[in-house]
Specification:
InterPro entries: FAD-linked_oxidoreductase-like, PRODH_bac_arc, Proline_DH_dom, Proline_oxidase. By secondary structure, this protein is α/β, with parallel strands linked by helices. The chain has twelve helices and eight strands.
């Protein structure tokens, strides 16, 4: 049953008709728990609150299903406005983005042009930009673009997914760049020809890449709500005397806030991934696909 629900929500997340319908009705039925509103103003207010709780943030202006150059330019402009708003408010947040929202599926040149504009503005504000990894179809080109951008910029990082067979090799190659990586399990539906189909295998590979990247001496953002993985990271850090400045834990807005608070109390760096914007539906569906508890939360809101 859980697998059926996961597949259903993952499919819905890619459905353009469902996305349009969701935009029409707005952030209702529980989506506001996971998305910090539709405007920059609401996002900055969320960042202020999280900063006051001792947490840092990465803001993501949500964008999917970009089909025209005009839409890609608008998305890039929103990323730049987000960086400006962070600087103006004086809050502690960097920026996450998806390159498909910047025109990657239209042309690589358009995407690179937009990325350079964003990274130039981030550099002006002494800020950092994280490139989110998307589905397997975009994996190699995302890594290739990251490598190209690293020749010009040192304020850019990448996300790497544990459920892919190729991941350990990718991290070995990225080590040459001293890459700042966010390590995640992975949230897209992928073929068993490229990704581990069993959770236990994904978990085992996740441990391997956490250890691999930490021992490479590069900055490691461990993005998980799994307490087993959090404790495993702590054990590697303790065993090898890895400084606190070399790693952080990342969690999603609205999820496992008790664990976030506990880690902050322990003196560990916690960064909360805060999405906002009108194009929130695909992100929301992936959150529902990941955790059955999220589905029951939404159903309770519907019953109210």
């Amino acid at each position: 049953m859980e697998l059926i629900m996961r597949n259903m929500f993952q499919s819905l997340g890619k459905n353009t008709s469902a996305n349009k319908l969701a935009k029409k009705y707005g952030l209702r039925f529980g989506a506001s728990r996971f998305v910090a509103g539709e405007s920059i103003k609401s996002a900055i207010e969320a960042v202020k609150r999280l900063n006051s709780e001792g947490k840092v943030v990465t803001l993501d202006h949500l964008g999917e299903f970009v089909y025209t150059e005009e839409e890609a330019l608008e998305s890039a402009a929103m990323c730049i406005q987000t960086l400006d708003a962070i600087s103006e408010a004086g809050v502690n947040s960097n920026l996450s983005l998806k390159m498909t929202s910047l025109g990657l599926d239209i042309s690589r040149e358009l995407c690179m042009k937009n990325m350079r504009k964003i990274l130039d503005r981030a550099k002006l504000h002494n800020n950092f930009v994280r490139i989110d990894m998307e589905d397997y179809e975009h994996c190699q080109i995302s890594i290739d673009i990251y490598k190209e951008l690293r020749k010009e910029y040192d304020n850019v990082g990448l996300v790497i997914q544990a459920y892919l067979f190729r991941t350990q090799q990718d991290i070995a190659h990225l080590n040459k760049l001293n890459a700042n990586l966010r390590l995640v399990k992975g949230a897209y539906k992928e073929s068993p020809s490229v990704a581990f189909p069993e959770k236990k295998d994904v978990d085992e590979n996740y441990k391997k890449i956490i250890r691999q990247h930490l021992l490479n001496g590069n900055y490691t953002a461990v993005a998980t709500h799994d307490e087993t993985m959090i404790e495993y990271t702590k054990s590697v850090v303790s065993e090898h005397q890895i400084p606190k400045e070399q790693f952080e834990f990342q969690m999603l807005y609205g999820i496992c806030e008790e664990i976030q608070a506990r880690l902050v109390k322990e003196g560990l760096k916690v960064r909360v991934y805060v999405p906002y914007g009108v194009d929130w539906f695909g992100y929301f569906m992936r959150r529902l696909a990941e955790r059955p508890a999220n589905v029951w939360f939404v159903l309770k809101n519907l019953l109210k």
